[in-house]
Design a protein that fits this description.
binds S-adenosyl-L-homocysteine, Transcription Regulator spoIIAA, Archaeosine Trna-guanine Transglycosylase, Chain: A, domain 4, Rossmann fold, 20 strands, alpha/beta
């Protein structure tokens, strides 16, 4: 006898079912033929002939109505189920344990745990529950995390705007134990403070760890870190460069960067509060040259309509940075805009190089680190692109 009998059921169209078959976990409202007669939570999904397809998270108010959890329609989504799934995600991160104490333990759809993010900072966990369906599973998830990791605290950074589309409150709340305002992250021997309650994302930009290490190892001479935030790139670069200018439009962000430099006993960074566009233009005018440059701007394209303007912005800073490179100089450049796809990112760099008047070598393209898995059939899991460039002359 099937266990699905007394559980709420959603019936989906053939198009909805095909999405799952092609490896994407979302089914949109327009593909739900018969919605479940239940509140947000887990439901069994059938096709229109009554064939069970699996178990999903159900979000009654969202455009994304169903998110696939398990292809086994008899799966019971209890604490044990979450323990198994989270442990599988955690085991992929093993290689990071010798490099850092902070990583993304669960990257939502990328780890087959839709709308759930879990970041680990030392003994603490910061979670983001971004759908009504996952919110309904909160107690089991917190129970699973407590049992698996015995963390000193679990914080929910449920303050992202996407929660509103799900009919959920935006809030930052403690779910377990205690979580301090600041937690020290150790990343390849560089230490900096994450701010889990108030910092960007869940308190730090963990996704750039390997890129910081990459340019940090190669850095030399006179260096510039634009969009420095808390100085994470600058700290890595400062270990091998003679001198670093860390630039950001936010003075409070740079105060944190200066504290982080002190924490590492690093004294060859100066901090400049300025607009990166203006700064790059001015340095071009006065003929300054750098041996190492980092460009890690915020997402210029927040949505599709803003993409053309965003591309102009990316091209402008990249072209100017290329012009500022000394012969043999290195530029590490990144974009975290989901809408700027990998091909568009490369096109933008080509066009910047063409207009820079320099001969630019593409030394390396980087994607996401192992703790932010990008699944090929789920484009939404990928957003970060990076390139290491060298000016030949
Ligand atoms: N590189 C950082 C993350 C950068 S986040 C890291 O690895 O941790 C983006 C930063 O860009 C923010 O700190 C924001 O204050 C800054 N910023 C946004 N627009 C800017 C501009 N026009 N000029 C300079 N900084 C800007």
């Amino acid at each position: 006898m099937s266990l699905t009998q007394d559980r709420p059921v959603a019936v989906v169209s053939a198009r909805g079912a095909r999405r799952w078959e092609s490896g994407h976990p979302w089914i949109f409202r327009s593909d739900v033929a018969v919605p479940p007669k239940s509140d947000a939570g887990t439901v069994v999904v059938h096709d229109q002939r009554g064939r069970p397809l699996g178990v999903a998270l159900w979000s009654p108010r969202s455009e994304i109505s169903l998110r696939l959890l398990d292809r086994d329609p008899d799966a019971i989504i209890d604490r044990t189920w979450w323990i198994t799934r989270i442990r599988a995600a955690e085991s992929r991160r093993k290689p990071l344990e010798s490099q850092t104490n902070a990583w993304r333990m669960v990257h939502g759809e990328g780890d087959a745990l839709p709308s759930l993010v879990i970041d680990r900072y030392g003994d603490y966990l910061v979670v983001q529950l971004s759908s009504a369906g996952i919110e309904a599973c909160r107690a089991d998830i917190v129970g699973a995390l407590a049992e698996l990791f015995n963390p000193a605290g679990i914080l929910a950074r449920n303050d992202a705007g996407s929660r509103e589309r799900e009919g959920l409150e935006r809030e930052t709340i403690l779910l377990h134990g205690d979580v301090p305002q600041e937690i020290e992250v150790d990343e390849y021997g560089v230490r900096y403070l994450a701010a889990p309650w108030t910092g960007q994302k869940t308190g730090a930009f963990l996704d750039q760890r390997e890129n910081r290490h990459l340019i940090g190892e190669l850095a030399r001479g006179k260096a510039l870190d634009c969009f420095s935030y808390h100085g994470s790139f600058a700290l890595h670069v400062a270990r091998n460069a003679d001198h670093v200018t860390a630039l950001d439009a936010s003075a409070p962000a740079l105060e944190r960067a200066a504290e982080n430099a002190e924490r590492n006993g690093i004294s060859n960074i100066d901090f400049v509060t300025a607009d990166a566009f203006d700064f790059l233009r001015d340095r071009e005018r006065d003929g300054t040259r750098y041996d190492t440059i980092v460009l890690d701007p915020p997402a210029f394209a927040k949505n599709k309509p803003s993409l053309p303007g965003a591309i102009r912005g990316y091209k402008d800073i990249n072209m100017r940075a290329m012009r500022l490179l000394a012969p043999g100089g290195l530029l590490f450049t990144a974009s975290c805009s989901f809408h700027l796809t990998k091909p568009l990112f490369l096109d933008m760099l080509r066009s910047a190089a063409a207009d820079s008047g320099r001969r630019i070598i593409l030394r390396e393209l980087t994607g996401q680190p192992i703790d932010h898995p990008e699944v090929l059939t789920i484009p939404e899991t990928g957003y970060l692109k990076g390139a290491l460039l060298e000016a030949e002359n």
